[in-house]
Amino acid sequence: MTAGGVFKDPIGEEEKVLARLRLAGELDAPPASLGHAVKAAFSLRALDAELAALTYDSAQDERSLAGVRDAAEPSRFLTFEAPALTVEVEATPDGDTRRLVGQLTPPVPGPLIISHAAGTVSVELDPFGRFSADGVAPGPISVHCEAAAVTTEWVII
Amino acid sequence: MRLPVCATYDLPMGGGASDGDLFERVRAGDAQAWDALYDRLGGRVFAVARSHRLSREDAEDVCQVAWNRLLTHLHTIREPECVGAWLAATARNESLRLLKRSGRQVPTGDAFEFEGPDEIAPPVDARLLATERQKAVWDALAQLRPACQRLLRLRMAGFSYQEICELLDVPAGSIGPTQRRCLEQLRKRLTGMEREAEVAP
Predict the structure, then answer these.
(1) How high is the ipTM of this complex?
(2) Residues of B in contact with A45 (CB under 8 A)
């Protein structure tokens, strides 16, 4: 070791430390539940569905962030757009869960499937394309509309 | 076999399927290939989220989004060999979104200068089963500055130096000196801790 704090045998010493790092990394492996969920997702994927991309998220909006950062968790507004369908969702904290209220434009017949980390929930659409769902666990969600064959991007709520 | 720059992940011993081979099979609807792709890259994607000092729970959410997003983009990814880099970049973006949404500090300019809310530490139950040598690495890591912790957490998961530069969107070579210092500091702390352990009764 020199006074400058440089490895005297840079490559060999670095490789040894890196090898120890990799061994230690095994302690922080992904949880088994993640592997199960990801693997199960393959057979649940919506084939032939069009993707509705996230085009607005109030939580990423600088203007709204400036005003609400201090407020207790506010409602979050999300807009997803596919060529022929727009999905708007408002997610409001409700205790440990989220209440989702939203609308599809143009209106299409239901049901609407909301996928989340623990499974799926099916909700009805009213004649105006509106829907609501209570008790959705915080975490990743995606909304799938069978009638329009559209699936939204996944987002964490 | 000549692979694109992004496909630097370890190939299985004695050859076997590359990331791109696996991904092409996934595209064709092969569920076993999907499982194999997760088994190969799951730890790396998780490490990206954890390197942002997200809790294991938040990191799990981020990974779910990244992997599900891969499913919704199966047929739009242009370079199958780069699927690992694509997943890592998606996990990085989602981690930053999560940090921003919760009003936590986010990177400004220097990609290193930020930290999430949580300590960089393995779960308690894993620690119980760990060897002393493994625990020492985490204890030493926790004493380093956040930029080092982040860099070395990625190295732990097997990311190469070049992959980290791409992930952080910094020019190749620009974090070389940082990495060398981080590794040296880690090594010094490990040596110090082990010397103390020897002296102790």
Answers:
(1) 0.86
(2) 71-72
